[in-house]
Amino acid sequence: MSEQHNRPDDENPPAAEEMAREVDELERRSNTAARLFDVRRIIGGLFVVYGVIVTIAGILATEEDLKKAQDVNINLWTGLAMLALGIFFLVWLRVSPTVPPPPAEELVREQGIDPHDGGPDSGRTDGGESPGTRD
Asked: pTM score > 0.85 for this model?
């Protein structure tokens, strides 16, 4: 076996830098995907599309269609309401965009916790000593 496979990562800085670049790129793509698939965008878009279809059906309604609905153009009113709701969702998305969560490294730096031990106290109530560490 070659000794290259036994060397630790810190002896190979170009590979570590490449890995860091790949991680940064994946985080950027993840943040873009989070904004792209925001539920408000999907709901708002669907309501606008269906609202346009139902509004057109209401505009093109015949007198016979209106008599069936007791002279209320329900398609027109429902379509306009759906359009208004869809536009509300899209404006809400524009006014208050999705903020992706910070990467784990930033959380560790900001909060000063070790991600491997489960938090500052790890839920202990005994003063933080592990069993068997006392003399």
From this structure: no
Q: What is the mean pLDDT of residues 101-125?
A: 60
Q: Is 122 helix (H, G, I), strand (E, B) or coil?
A: coil
Can you give the residue ranges of every domain in the chain?
A: 36-96
Look up residue 44 and give its two tokens.
Answer: 């708002």
Q: Please name the residues in contact with 98: beta carbons below 8 A apart, sequence gap of 6 or more.
A: 34, 35, 38
Integer Cα distance of 130 and 135 in angstroms: 12
Tokens of 5: 């496979």
Is residue 21's pLDDT more than 70? yes
The pair of structure tokens assigned to 38 is 């925001």
Concatenating the DSSP letter of every residue in 60-118 gives T--HHHHHHTTT--HHHHHHHHHHHHHHHHHHHHHHS---PPPPHHHHHHHHT--TTTT
pLDDT at residue 103 tops 70: no
Helix/strand/coil for 1 = coil
